[in-house]
Design goal:
9 strands; globular; Endonuclease, Chain A; 7-stranded mixed sheet; 5 helices; alpha+beta
Length: 178
């Protein structure tokens, strides 16, 4: 009998371990990152702390397709790190969408495992900050195919601009999809 799809709760620092140390490094083909806030974020590569952007650039080099959706322009430190990795501009496997209405937070790897929760891709949200400096966060890690497919279907429709033409926030959108 096949194993049942699993879903489990993650809180606070468990989010860092599950997402930055688990889901993202395990992606082999497709990695979707969706967040409202996006800041300079570091993660351990086993010995040193490196920018998440370095890990993502390495994933692009490995052939992983990455889709990044976020709600606002990241800060100057993130931009400096972003500019250090030419893969983001040169690779046709990297897609980025900025939407001021995006408030979802999820990370999906290969359509098989997902984090869905409250943590933004920031040091205080999902990063390795100490327990007395980080945000309180809650989410789930799931392998439930129906749940993951539902989120992916919504994000595909979003990516294709299904919500863009009727959006009543187009006047503040820096880069409308449609």
């Amino acid at each position: 009998m096949p194993a049942a799809d699993t879903t489990r709760l993650v809180l606070n620092h468990e989010t860092y371990e599950a997402v930055l140390q688990g889901i993202i490094p395990a992606a082999k083909k497709v990695l979707w990152l969706v967040t409202a806030d996006l800041k300079d974020l570091y993660t351990s590569d086993g010995g040193n702390f490196v920018p998440l952007l370095q890990i993502l650039a390495e994933k692009l080099d490995e052939g992983v397709e990455i889709r990044l959706v976020h709600a606002k322009e990241p800060g100057p430190r993130f931009r400096e790190d972003f500019d250090r990795f030419p893969q983001f501009l040169e690779s046709d496997r990297f897609e980025r969408i900025l939407c001021p209405r995006m408030h979802m937070k999820c990370v999906i790897a290969d359509g098989r495992v997902a984090y869905i929760g409250s943590a933004n891709l920031t040091g205080a949200g999902i990063g390795a900050k100490g327990q007395h400096r980080r945000n309180f966060e809650a989410g789930i890690i799931t392998e439930d195919k129906t749940m993951i497919r539902g989120v992916m279907d919504f994000l595909d429709a979003f990516y294709l601009g299904d919500h863009c033409l009727k959006c009543q926030r187009r006047n503040v959108c820096p880069d409308p999809i449609a």
